[in-house]
């Protein structure tokens, strides 16, 4: 169980941003941009999977996560925690432990047969499930995982990600239309703030990253990526 | 014949989602085009391989362009043979692409 302390939200986000920078999970590369799953070109990339190798950091992160979930949703609002394959699985395991709840995971594709073909673990009809992934970009994968859980007769009204890109204004609305509220620990804006305050990056790189965060589609179009998001 | 499959990937910036859609479309077309089944299956396999390799993984724009060039060449070989080629040309194309995908 978590320590039942409730740090200030801003302090959580700043600390998580510093943790991600400390373990080199944040990559900046404007001259050799990354391509996201959507085809969007980006000068930044974050690898939350690295977190699993740092026990002290991941332990603090899960305490933060538990505090945010119980503060924003409640103590008795979930019957299970589900991890999205693959990166969401370890975080779901640790968070379910913190919250004292059963854990399961959702496959990207069905395996076997029946309405539970995408689910591994025991899930009761009508169970209220917290869906967990490592990060959220446009919310697309969460909607797919949520649909898979909903098909079993359970419901997903809340989803948690360690990191939220917060660069597509319609992401919360998309998730809301799918019946989900998004909870997270930090965003690119928190990373940028720490980088600026601590002079971690050259001004040119900061400007490039800021340009992308403010208008990702235009930056992508000018750097070899898509010029229109397809949903 | 098969070029439209690659065109859709190109238009979507070589995204993982576009490869996934292409893989599914190629498999779907097999039912309507049994004479092209082997070629479509190879295209589906090649594009699905990309999805399996890069879903949720970082990929630079340069690498994405190289991967797109590779799939364009593969589809081009099959398209040329299956559009108006002899049975031997089709078999040669299938073998050439299979060998390429096996490396």
Strand content of chain A: 15-25%
Poorly predicted tracts of residues of chain A: none
* Largest beta-sheet characterization of chain B: none
What structural category do the secondary elements of chain B indicate? mainly alpha
Number of helical elements of chain A: 8
Radius of gyration of chain A in whole Å, from Cα? 18 Å
Strand fraction of chain B equals under 5%
Could you characterize what this model shows?
The complex is a heterodimer of chains A (231) and B (103). Chain A is of the alpha/beta class and 231 residues long. Chain A is 39% helix and 20% strand. Chain A has one domain (9-221): Rossmann fold, CATH 3.40.50. Chain A has a 6-stranded mixed β-sheet, sandwiched between helices. Chain A has a two-stranded antiparallel sheet with strand order 1-4. A two-stranded antiparallel ribbon of chain A has the order 2-3. In chain A, strand 8 (128-136), helix 4 (140-150) and strand 9 (155-164) form a beta-alpha-beta unit. In chain A, helix 1 (9-22) packs antiparallel against helix 2 and helix 2 (55-72) packs across helix 3 (88-99). The radius of gyration of chain A is 18 Å and the shape is globular. The termini of chain A are far apart. With 103 residues, chain B is mostly helical. Chain B has one domain. In chain B, helix 3 packs antiparallel against helix 4 (61-84). The longest helix of chain B has 24 residues, at 61-84. The mean pLDDT of chain B is 93. The interface between A and B is medium-sized, with 23 and 18 residues.
